[in-house]
Design brief:
alpha+beta, 6 helices, Heat Shock Protein 90
C-alpha cells in the first residue's frame, strides 16, 4: 500500500527539519554573521537544553573576528569536545575556557567525569571525534593534548595559531 500525499509531505517536512538541524550543527550561520562568541553561547545553550549538562564558560580575547577557517575549526572543536563529554563523561557540568591573543587561540574543555585511557582510545582507531579534531588542528598548524585519568576526568587542550587573522 502506497503512502498518501499527506504522509509523504510529513516525511519531507521531517527530512527538511533534520537537514536544517544538521546544517546548524556543522556551521551555524551566526558564526559568519555575528562571530565566534555568539555562536559558542548559542551552542552552549542548545547543548545544555539537549543534554542537561551545564557549561561553565570563561573567555578572554573573543572581542575580535578571526579568519573563517579558524572560527569554524574552533567552533567544531568545542562542539566535538562537548559531544564527547555528553557521550562518555557521565557528569552534570563541564568547563570551557577560551583565550585568544594576537598569536593563538587556546581552547580547554575540562570535566570531572569518568575519564578514559587516551592511548588505548587512540590506538583502537575507534575515536572518530578525536581524529577529526586532530585533523582540523593540523590543517591550521595547531595541536591538541588530552590529559585523562579513569575515575578522575578529562582535560582537552587545543591551540590554534593565529598568523594572518583579521
Amino acid at each position: 500500500m502506497e503512502p498518501c500525499l499527506s504522509e509523504v509531505q510529513k516525511m519531507v517536512q521531517e527530512l527538511l527539519r533534520r537537514v536544517r538541524s544538521m546544517s546548524l550543527d556543522l556551521r551555524p550561520s551566526m558564526l559568519d554573521d555575528l562571530g565566534l562568541l555568539p555562536a559558542l553561547l548559542w551552542h552552549f545553550d542548545r547543548f545544555t537544553t539537549q543534554t542537561n549538562i551545564r557549561v561553565k564558560f570563561r573567555h578572554d580575547g573573543l572581542n575580535t573576528r578571526f579568519r573563517p577557517e579558524v572560527e569554524t575549526a574552533a567552533y567544531r572543536i568545542v562542539q566535538e569536545g562537548l559531544t564527547n563529554v555528553a557521550r562518555h563523561a557521565c557528569i552534570n557540568n563541564v568547563e570551557v575556557i577560551f583565550k585568544a591573543d594576537r598569536e593563538k587561540i587556546l581552547i580547554r574543555i575540562e570535566d570531572k567525569g569518568v575519564g578514559f585511557d587516551y592511548a588505548s582510545a587512540r590506538a583502537s582507531g575507534d575515536s572518530a571525534g578525536l581524529k577529526g579534531m586532530n585533523e582540523r588542528l593540523s590543517m591550521l598548524a595547531g595541536r591538541m593534548t588530552i590529559d585523562s585519568t579513569p575515575g578522575i576526568g578529562t582535560k582537552l587542550t587545543a591551540i590554534i595559531p593565529l598568523e594572518g587573522s583579521s
